[in-house]
C-alpha cells in the first residue's frame, strides 16, 4: 500500500506539472507567428532577445531556447529563470535514472565493487560530459537541435524498454502473485501500443528535416534492423501474454506460468 500511495502522489504531481506546462505553452504559442513573437519580446524587458524570431508571418517554431525566451517576454523575466531551473531539474532527473541503472548493472552483473564516490564520478561524467562539450564548443541552436535529436532517439528506444517489462511482468514464474492479470495485460498493452504509435509518428515527422538525402539510405538500413528487433520483442511479449501458437521450442520459457505449462509440470497421479 505504501508503494501504491507513493507512486500515486509522484505521478499526480508530475501530471499537474506537465498539465501546467502544456497550458502555459498553449497560451503562449498557439497560432503565434514569428512577427507576433518578435513584437511581444521587443516590447518587453527582454527586448534584446527579440532578434531570435524572424520577422515574418510563419508560425513560430518553438524549441527549448525559444520557449524559455517567449515565456520570459510574456510572463516576465522570472518565468525565464523558472523555465531554466525546470529544464535543469528534468535533465538531472532523467540523467540520474540512467546513471543509477548503470550503477546497478555495474555492481550486479559485472560484480565490481567501487567506492560510492568513484561510481558517482564515473557515471555522472559519462552522462554529462558530452553535453558540457557541446555547450562549450557549440551555440544554443545546436543544443536545441541536439535536444530534438535526443527526443527522437528516446522515442526509438522506447519499445526496447517497455516490451521486456511487459514480457517479464506477465510471467507468473518470475512475478509469482504479482504477475499481470488479463485486465492489466490488456490495459498496459494498449497504452504501450498507443505510446509507440505516437512516438513513431514523431520520428517519421522528424525524418524530412535530415540535412542530406544520403542520410536516408543509412536510415533505411537501420530501420530494417530496428523493425526486426522490435518484431522479435513483440513476438516474445505476445507469447508471455498467452499466444501459445507463436511459441517454438527455443521460446518455451516465455510460457512460464501458463495453464498448459503448469499441467505439463504437474506430476501424474
Automatic annotation (TrEMBL):
Entry keyword Flavoprotein: no
Entry superkingdom: Eukaryota
Classification via Pfam families: Nramp
InterPro entries: NRAMP_fam
Protein name in the entry: Natural resistance-associated macrophage protein 1
Keyword tags: Endosome, Glycoprotein, Ion transport, Iron, Iron transport, Lysosome, Membrane, Transmembrane, Transmembrane helix, Transport
Protein localization: Late endosome membrane; Lysosome membrane
Membrane topology field: Multi-pass membrane protein
Family: Belongs to the NRAMP family.
Provenance organism: Phyllostomus discolor
Catalytic reaction equation(s): Zn(2+)(in) + H(+)(out) = Zn(2+)(out) + H(+)(in); Fe(2+)(in) + H(+)(out) = Fe(2+)(out) + H(+)(in); Mn(2+)(in) + H(+)(out) = Mn(2+)(out) + H(+)(in)
Lineage: Eukaryota, Metazoa, Chordata, Craniata, Vertebrata
GO MF, one annotated term: cadmium ion transmembrane transporter activity
Purpose: Macrophage-specific antiporter that fluxes metal ions in either direction against a proton gradient. Localized to late endosomal lysosomal membranes, delivers bivalent cations from the cytosol into these acidic compartments where they may directly affect antimicrobial activity. Involved in iron metabolism and host natural resistance to infection with intracellular parasites.
Keyword hit for DNA repair: no
Amino acid at each position: 500500500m505504501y508503494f501504491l500511495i507513493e507512486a500515486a502522489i509522484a505521478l499526480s504531481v508530475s501530471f499537474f506539472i506537465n498539465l501546467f506546462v502544456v497550458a502555459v505553452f498553449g497560451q503562449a504559442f498557439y497560432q503565434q507567428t514569428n512577427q507576433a513573437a518578435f513584437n511581444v519580446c521587443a516590447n518587453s524587458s527582454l527586448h534584446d532577445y527579440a532578434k531570435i524570431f524572424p520577422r515574418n508571418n510563419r508560425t513560430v517554431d518553438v524549441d527549448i531556447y525559444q520557449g524559455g525566451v517567449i515565456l520570459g517576454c510574456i510572463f516576465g523575466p522570472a518565468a525565464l529563470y523558472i523555465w531554466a531551473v525546470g529544464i535543469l531539474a528534468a535533465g538531472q532527473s532523467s540523467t540520474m535514472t540512467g546513471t543509477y541503472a548503470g550503477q546497478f548493472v555495474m555492481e550486479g552483473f559485472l560484480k565490481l565493487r567501487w567506492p560510492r564516490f568513484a561510481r558517482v564520478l564515473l557515471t555522472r561524467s559519462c552522462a554529462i560530459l558530452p553535453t558540457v562539450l557541446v555547450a562549450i564548443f557549440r551555440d544554443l541552436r545546436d543544443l536545441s537541435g541536439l535536444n530534438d535529436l535526443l527526443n527522437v532517439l528516446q522515442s526509438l528506444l522506447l519499445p526496447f524498454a517497455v516490451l521486456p517489462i511487459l514480457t517479464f511482468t506477465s510471467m507468473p514464474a518470475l512475478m509469482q502473485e504479482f504477475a499481470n492479470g488479463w485486465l492489466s495485460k490488456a490495459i498496459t498493452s494498449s497504452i504501450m501500443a498507443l505510446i509507440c504509435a505516437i512516438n513513431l509518428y514523431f520520428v517519421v515527422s522528424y525524418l524530412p528535416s535530415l540535412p542530406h538525402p544520403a542520410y536516408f539510405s543509412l536510415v533505411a538500413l537501420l530501420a530494417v534492423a530496428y523493425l526486426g528487433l522490435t518484431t522479435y520483442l513483440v513476438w516474445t511479449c505476445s507469447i508471455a501474454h498467452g499466444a501459445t501458437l507463436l511459441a517454438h521450442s527455443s521460446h518455451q520459457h516465455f510460457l512460464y506460468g501458463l495453464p498448459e505449462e503448469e499441467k505439463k509440470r504437474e506430476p501424474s497421479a
